[in-house]
């Protein structure tokens, strides 16, 4: 039956998809099958992400295929084949080994989208070190916090980022043994080494050592509402899910030109901006430039991008430019457009169908899940506004919520899964390969994320009677701004380091483009006047400390709502600001 609120797919497109029959795939799929589709290290020596992404292609018939096509800011193009990527990452792994960096030690990157970043990420994994990518727009505070928590042994960055972000905090990082600088002028800074000199002297040949699929590979930081950022640890086995989900949810194939616009400093930019397309053997595109509507359309058209994975904020920014800009470009190569990270409005899905010639396929996952869990599929109709259905191999559920808004967990540890059409906390049956294996140094927090065999996501979702999932809101106070998760506590702490600030409450305010904007409410110390100058100073203070996650607005407020124990009640603050009852907040999130 044809439904007006559904976007139907043409039969020819359905027939060509990787996942033609969703129900059958859900019945027949097993993670063992997905594991068998990968090579594994020669001689049964285990499973290593970088071997699957690079070395097996570099040693096979795809050696000459372009692995990375990189566009620099000025329009220059650099193509790196799988063979060359094998050599470059081999050199990087040899540099690490030569410096005495041991498997399991943490290597951090603080880099924009440049070839050295991709080489460092994959070379680190080859050397069996743990990779932690940092967002290069972070200010010194979030970087110091994350490098300290993860005991960074090595950092790869540029001279400019070193001066701006690392030099002011270097004395807070005693575990940091090596800073490797890339790019021009990468010499002369005390306590650093020049990466290209080291790489030039190293051998391109590197044999990946035995890697247990359960060995730690990636450390991604994510934000909660209280305390420090959480370091979610992922293992090499995650590559099984990267590969399978890239095939199912992104419909990726070897002949695709794939563009993931997420920055590699965030989980999407690593799992799908680096690992997934390479494991598939496709060509991945990386654009050093920042968002610009005309530039993006040009990239899509000129590079003949076939699969595009982006974010709702970006789609909304393109929508604002109107359809004329899109019409000037030949987007006929596009086969699939997908987005993740924030709610995708139904209008944006339909706009894609009309203006890009392809509807936007929403999908859902989070740092902890390591890979896409719920998705719209190339061969399936789309219900605009729905995140889609669970992937083959993923068992999703909704759990009844308790008075605190989170899943109700009985004294004996039991939970209450809801049947049929329902709304509750979104939960996933534990055990898929890319599930995080721990929060760094915080086993209690990790244990608290599970109940009765379910991983509790912290998101509230609704399921319709056909099993499609719809995002409702977060069960906590974390902020999603332009697709980036921002921990209010981290922002509050940074502001409270200013001598004029007694207390701060930070919330996300609805924004038509970015989803939410970070806004801080600040109580000043006694006797300090709330002037415009002070507001400007605090905004600058926040920006210098936090970088891209700093508050965009600051209001003075000496009546912040508190719990009895004295904590700022952010939900109440938000409800107050929006003129809503607290219970109406989730309604706001759906209709936003
Ligand atoms: P992160 O761990 O930074 O990737 O953020 C994960 C969070 O982003 C999820 O828990 C959701 O709150 C939100 N999110 C991710 N994908 C979607 C989506 N498709 N729709 C709505 N929210 C999403």
Describe this structure in words.
The chain has three domains: 11-364, ANL, N-terminal domain (Rossmann fold); 395-474, Luciferase, Domain 3 (Luciferase, domain 3); 479-587, ANL, C-terminal domain (GMP Synthetase, Chain A, domain 3, 2-Layer Sandwich), CATH 3.30.300. It starts with 10 loop residues before the first helix and ends with a helix. The chain is α/β, with parallel strands linked by helices and 592 residues long. The chain has a nine-stranded mixed sheet with strand order 2-1-11-10-12-13-14-15-16. The longest helix is centred in the N-terminal third of the chain and has 17 residues, at 82-98. It contains 20 helices and 27 strands. Strand 13 (336-340), helix 15 (346-356) and strand 14 (360-364) form a beta-alpha-beta unit. The model is unreliable at 587-592 (pLDDT under 50). Adenosine monophosphate (AMP) is lined by residues 222, 267, 340-343, 362-364, 366-367, 387, 457, 459, 471, 474, 480, 485.
Labels describing this entry:
globular; 592 residues; 5-stranded parallel beta sheet; alpha/beta; Luciferase, domain 3; 9-stranded mixed beta sheet; binds adenosine monophosphate
CATH topology of the largest domain: Rossmann fold
Proportion of β residues? 15-25%
Number of strands: 27
Contiguous helical run count: 20
Distance between the ends: 30 Å
Given as residue ranges, the uncertain stretches (5+ residues, pLDDT < 50) are 587-592
CATH class of the largest domain: Alpha Beta
Number of domains: 3
Pairing-aware structural class of the strands and helices?
Answer: alpha/beta
Domain AMP-dependent synthetase/ligase: 57-440
GO molecular function: acetate-CoA ligase activity
InterPro entries: AMP-bd_C, AMP-bd_C_sf, AMP-binding_CS, AMP-dep_synth/lig_dom, ANL_N_sf
Enzyme class: ligase
């Amino acid at each position: 039956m044809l439904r007006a609120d559904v976007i139907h797919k043409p039969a020819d497109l359905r027939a060509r998809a990787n996942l033609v029959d969703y129900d059958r795939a859900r019945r027949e799929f097993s993670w063992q099958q997905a594991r068998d589709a990968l090579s594994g290290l020669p001689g049964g020596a285990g499973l290593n992400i970088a071997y699957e992404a690079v070395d097996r292609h570099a040693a096979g018939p795809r050696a000459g295929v372009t692995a990375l096509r990189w566009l620099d800011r000025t329009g220059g193009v650099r193509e790196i084949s799988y063979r060359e990527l094998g050599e470059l990452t081999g050199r990087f792994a040899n540099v690490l080994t030569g410096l005495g960096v041991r498997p399991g030690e943490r290597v951090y990157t603080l880099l924009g989208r440049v070839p050295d970043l991709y080489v460092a990420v994959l070379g680190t994994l080859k050397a069996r070190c743990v990779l932690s990518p940092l967002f290069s727009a972070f200010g010194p505070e979030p970087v110091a916090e994350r490098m300290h928590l993860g005991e960074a042994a090595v950092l790869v960055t540029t001279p400019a980022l070193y001066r701006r972000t690392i030099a002011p905090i270097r004395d807070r990082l005693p575990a940091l043994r090596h800073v490797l600088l890339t790019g021009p002028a990468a010499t002369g800074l005390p306590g650093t080494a020049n990466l290209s000199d080291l790489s030039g002297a190293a051998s391109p040949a590197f044999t990946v050592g035995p890697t247990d699929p359960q060995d730690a590979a990636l450390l991604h930081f994510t934000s909660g509402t209280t305390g420090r950022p959480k370091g979610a640890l992922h293992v090499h086995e995650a590559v099984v899910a990267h590969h399978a989900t890239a095939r199912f949810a992104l419909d990726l194939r070897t002949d695709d030109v794939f563009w993931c616009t997420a920055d590699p400093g965030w989980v999407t930019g690593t799992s799908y901006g680096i690992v997934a397309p390479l494991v598939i053997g496709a060509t991945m595109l990386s654009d050093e430039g920042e968002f610009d509507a005309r530039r993006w359309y040009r990239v899509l058209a000129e590079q003949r991008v076939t699969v595009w994975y982006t974010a709702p904020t970006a789609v909304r920014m393109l929508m604002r430019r109107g359809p004329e800009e899109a019409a000037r470009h030949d987007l006929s190569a596009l086969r699939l457009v997908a987005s993740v990270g924030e709610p995708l409005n139904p209008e944006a899905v339909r706009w894609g169908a009309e203006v890009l010639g392809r509807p936007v396929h929403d999908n859902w996952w989070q740092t902890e899940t390591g890979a896409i869990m719920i998705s719209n599929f190339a061969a399936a109709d789309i219900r605009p506004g729905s995140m889609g259905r669970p992937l083959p191999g993923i068992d999703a559920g909704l759990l009844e919520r308790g008075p605190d808004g989170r899943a109700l967990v009985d004294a004996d540890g039991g939970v209450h899964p809801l049947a049929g059409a329902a709304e509750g906390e979104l939960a996933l049956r534990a055990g898929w390969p890319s599930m995080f294996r721990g929060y760094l140094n915080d086993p209690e927090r990790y244990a608290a994320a599970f109940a009765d065999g379910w991983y509790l996501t912290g998101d509230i979702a609704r399921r319709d009677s056909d099993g499609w999932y719809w995002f409702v809101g977060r069960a906590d106070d974390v902020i999603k701004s332009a697709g980036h998760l921002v921990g209010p506590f981290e922002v509050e702490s940074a502001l409270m380091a200013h001598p004029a600030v007694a207390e701060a409450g930070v919330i996300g305010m609805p924004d038509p483009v970015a989803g939410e904007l970070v806004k801080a409410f600040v109580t000043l110390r006694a006797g300090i006047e709330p002037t415009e100058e002070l507001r400007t100073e605090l905004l600058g203070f926040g920006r210098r400390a936090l970088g891209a996650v700093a508050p965009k607005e600051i209001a003075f407020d000496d009546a912040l709502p508190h719990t009895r124990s004295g904590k700022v009640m952010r939900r109440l603050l938000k409800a107050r600001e929006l003129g809503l009852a607290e219970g109406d907040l989730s309604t706001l999130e759906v209709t936003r």
